[in-house]
TrEMBL record:
Cellular-component GO terms for this entry: chloroplast stroma; mitochondrion
Record keywords: Aminoacyl-tRNA synthetase, ATP-binding, Ligase, Nucleotide-binding, Protein biosynthesis
Domain Methionyl-tRNA synthetase anticodon-binding residue range list: 296-416
Organism of origin: Chondrus crispus (Carrageen Irish moss)
Protein name, per record: methionine--tRNA ligase
Example GO molecular function: methionine-tRNA ligase activity
Coiled coil: none
Family to which this protein belongs: Belongs to the class-I aminoacyl-tRNA synthetase family.
Reactions this protein catalyses: tRNA(Met) + L-methionine + ATP = L-methionyl-tRNA(Met) + AMP + diphosphate
Listed InterPro entries: Anticodon_Met, Met-tRNA_synth_2, Methionyl/Leucyl_tRNA_Synth, Rossmann-like_a/b/a_fold, tRNAsynth_Ia_anticodon-bd
């Protein structure tokens, strides 16, 4: 507040307008329903007139517009950016940043009869949250702890405050802006808006307790396009998670390890680095090529916060590996008297296990527990999958020859559809 004040952007004036107590903000009549009803709270707004301190938002009209034009990825997804740019171009008005005679709150520094309004002081919490208990409680210390933020994630319903007001406030205070602001969408349940009156509100804690954090995280990042509206169906949730984590990935790993234990004593007969180069094994080479392209695409998708595409790219490796092992049928070739066929079966198993390892690395930000179990099953230390160096781990060739793998066990048991009341708020 002091920095903004010293910059000449705080002044005292009288404001009169339509006020929504639920939103705690003044509304334009054009944004209200018939009868001056707030569309969010479905209650009529009331006339209010009071003397407050104002922030000179209009002063930053051109600067904000130029910044948004020059930084097209500052607000994402694209439709949210278009909304923000539209708000700015339509003209910015100064807004009240204090309330008179409020019994609680942070006093205005130079007028203790007024307290700082929530949409001014609360936004500064994003910076002050960087401080630890032993730190000096001042702005410079907080900024030095890790500002600006790489990504600022908020709901689309409060986008105006975080993508217009907040950047202007930071500009006024001479503080760097966050690198990106993501306005995420709303969630419906079974195609319907959630609400306690409908009895269909989703309890995230109950959902995690019922199905596990990895499963919940995977569904919402893989099946809901990040930044856009999405829907939760418990049936679809179970189907998607089972299809990918239990069937495509978990079953692939388990049957490969069982074949290795049964036919090779659980010992890798060849290193992964020696595979995927011989044209005589075309499908083996294809798995290695798909792995390389999928990991490259996944890198890009993660950086763009396109988690759906990242998950799909990584799972592409698992899907190709499943097709590979089905076509080669190593369980048959291991029974052959022809050592060429036995060697092909060995190469297939090691290639598939290496592909599974890369999938585990690629999905580690989304399903860290599953990734850890896969790495353990492949002979790595229990904590190996935490803090992976992606650039190294997602390259082909990590599994060494001679490593002894333990007894196979499921890394992700199939989910069973729970009683619906278990994940709904009563």
């Amino acid at each position: 507040m002091e920095r903004v004040w010293d910059n000449g952007d705080i002044y005292k004036s009288v404001y009169e307008g339509l006020y929504c107590t639920g939103c705690e903000e003044y509304k334009d009549e054009k944004d209200l329903l018939e009868g001056l009803v707030c569309p969010s709270h479905l209650k009529p707004c009331s006339d209010r007139k009071e003397e407050n301190y104002f922030f000179a938002l209009s002063k930053y009209q051109q600067k904000l517009e130029a910044f948004l034009e020059d930084n097209p990825d500052f607000v994402l997804p694209q439709e949210r950016r278009n909304e923000v740019l539209g708000w700015v171009k339509s003209g910015l008005r100064d807004f009240s940043v204090s309330r008179a005679n409020n019994p609680w709150g942070i006093p205005v520094p130079r007028d203790e009869s007024q307290t700082i309004y929530v949409w001014f002081d609360a936004l500064l919490g994003y910076v002050s949250a960087l401080l630890e208990d032993a730190d000096t409680p001042d702005l410079d210390t907080a900024l030095a702890k890790g500002w600006p933020a790489d990504v600022h994630i908020i709901g689309k319903d409060i986008l105006r405050f975080h993508a217009v007001y907040w950047p202007a406030m930071l500009m006024s205070a001479g503080v760097p802006l966050p690198k990106r602001v993501i306005g995420h969408g709303f969630l419906t349940k079974d195609g319907m808006k959630m609400g306690k009156s409908l009895g269909n509100t989703l309890d995230p804690v109950a959902l995690v307790n019922t199905y596990g954090a990895d499963a919940v995280r995977y569904y919402f990042l893989k099946a809901v396009d990040f930044g856009r509206d999405g829907d939760f169906s418990e049936q679809r949730f179970v189907e998607i998670v089972n299809a990918d984590l239990a069937n495509s990935l978990g079953n692939l790993l388990n049957r490969s390890l069982n074949l290795l234990k049964k036919n090779c004593g659980g010992v890798l007969p060849i290193s992964a680095a020696d595979l995927g180069r011989d044209e005589a094994y075309a499908e083996e080479m294809q798995l290695r090529r798909v792995s390389a392209s999928a990991t490259e695409n996944a890198f890009t998708s993660y950086a763009d916060l396109d988690f759906m595409s990242a998950c799909n790219e990584v799972m592409r490796i698992s899907n190709i590996a499943n097709m590979y092992i089905d076509r080669v049928a190593p369980w048959k070739k291991f029974k052959s008297d022809d050592m060429v066929e036995v060697r092909e079966a060995e190469r297939c198993i090691v290639s598939v296990l290496e592909g599974s390892r890369i999938v585990a690395a690629g999905l580690s930000p989304v399903v860290p527990e599953v990734s850890m179990k896969i790495y353990e099953a492949l002979g790595f230390a229990a904590d190996y999958a935490s803090g992976l160096d992606w650039e190294k781990e997602m390259r082909w060739g990590k599994l060494p020859a001679g490593i002894v793998l333990g007894k196979p066990k499921p890394v992700f048991p199939r989910l069973e559809l729970a009683v619906r009341e278990a994940v709904a708020v009563p």
